[in-house]
TrEMBL record:
Keyword Transmembrane helix belongs to the record: yes
Sorted UniProt keywords: Membrane, Transmembrane, Transmembrane helix
Keyword Hydrolase: no
PANTHER family in UniProt: TRANSMEMBRANE PROTEIN WITH METALLOPHOSPHOESTERASE DOMAIN, TRANSMEMBRANE PROTEIN WITH METALLOPHOSPHOESTERASE DOMAIN-RELATED
Calcineurin-like phosphoesterase domain ranges (all copies): 158-325
UniProt cross-references to InterPro entries, sorted A to Z: Calcineurin-like_PHP (IPR004843), Metallo-depent_PP-like (IPR029052), Metallophosphoesterase_sf (IPR051158)
Gene Ontology molecular function: any one: hydrolase activity
Protein name: Calcineurin-like phosphoesterase domain-containing protein
Residue ranges of the TM segments: 6-22, 34-52, 72-93, 114-134
Amino acid sequence: MWGLIITLFLGLYALMSFYIGYRGWKMLVQTASCYNRILFWAVFFLLVLPFPAAELGEDVLPASIVTCLTVWGGYSMVAVLYAFLLLLMIDVVRLMDQRVSFLPAYIKEHKKTPLFLAILVASLVLATVAYGGWNARHPVVTEYEVEVNKDAGSMKQLRIAMVSDIHYGSIIRAERLNRLVEMIHETRPDIVLLAGDLTDGRLPPEDARKLAEVLGRIQAPYGTFAVPGNHDRDLREKDSEFMRSLKEAGIRVLKDNYVSVGDSFYLIGRDDPNRRSVPPRLELNELMKGVDSSKPLILLDHQPIDLEKAQASGIDLQLSGHTHRGQIFPANLITGWIYELDWGLLQKGTYHLIVSCGYGTWGPPLRIGNQPEVVSVTLTFK
């Protein structure tokens, strides 16, 4: 299935690249000198080739080259997307003008108009991509306040720090996580919850230990808990180096089990619904057997799905990630269509859902249309 998705996306990418090359040829290069033609095609291929080269050469090229191509290809892939959209908008306006003339003649007939449009498109694309790279490295704290109409014993308030989608790997390294630890401590949490996709895939043992060591520096009175995400392949195996390292660092991974915290509330952690999981994750009502539902119930689930089941099971607060809120505009239109909530706070009766757009990045190391975040929740009990 994943191979089919990659094939379709590469096909769409090839069409966008062809369109950019064709429009660039028609606008600028067709009547240009030989030198300028060579320059155009050199720049064009440097723009469009790194992304497919990284995808297709992952298993045959040296790891260092793949990492460089992945970063470069991430930036250039987004540049191709925005260049395509801008050129498409220009052509739509041009076609509309052919039907109902509204553009001034001096603009349409001026010989410098194609060059001006090309410079405008290139400038907008470069500015947007540069902003996306900067934005991805400047996370913020997003705060929420939630009231739960249940008795939590002597506990009247709970401060939660929640982080999802770190995607530690070839792009997000340990140095990027030092700021994460600082931000979490600045929120002064009582408990820290890691809502999946800690990693970008399977980690070498050294990287697994390094990530666990960084996360182990997080301190909170009630500890740090995590659930697996769809990218956390090392968390599918209970005896993996990453699982052992997290345990040694004092981080408990909840995979379809729950804990009673301070005899005040329950924290329920779900496994990711990966169809290759053996056994598959439990149904929520089966998982919650033995839970005292008169106490506050907090559900940690990587993907914001099965909302009706969570509400029917008496969950008071569900914390999720996974969506990235699309990460790159206009992909948020897709995540907004797929999920009932792809970012923010949703309340249905006594049920609350908070979805984070995540701390790291997957694929392109950019964020456009959203900000990486640490979520801080103040939970008040009756």
